[in-house]
Design a protein that fits this description.
about 65% helix; mainly alpha
Length: about 60
């Protein structure tokens, strides 16, 4: 998420715009929670599991 600022890319302002937009959506209570599973420990195994869930959901949405 912070690779633009870390690498000092020319389009760093886009990260600011995205985060600002997300804050506005959160404050206006327009964001809908999508959490169906949480992983208490952040490690490679759990990241793979979480990514798998995201990819499956994205695939299913393409079928709708």
């Amino acid at each position: 998420m912070y690779s633009k600022s870390y690498d000092q890319t020319e389009d760093m302002i886009s990260q600011h715009k995205i985060l600002t937009h997300l804050v506005r959506l959160y404050e206006e209570e327009e964001l809908q929670p999508i959490t169906t599973k949480t992983y208490k420990i952040i490690n490679a195994e759990n990241m793979k599991k979480a990514l798998t869930v995201v990819l499956i959901i994205a695939f299913i949405q393409t079928l709708m």
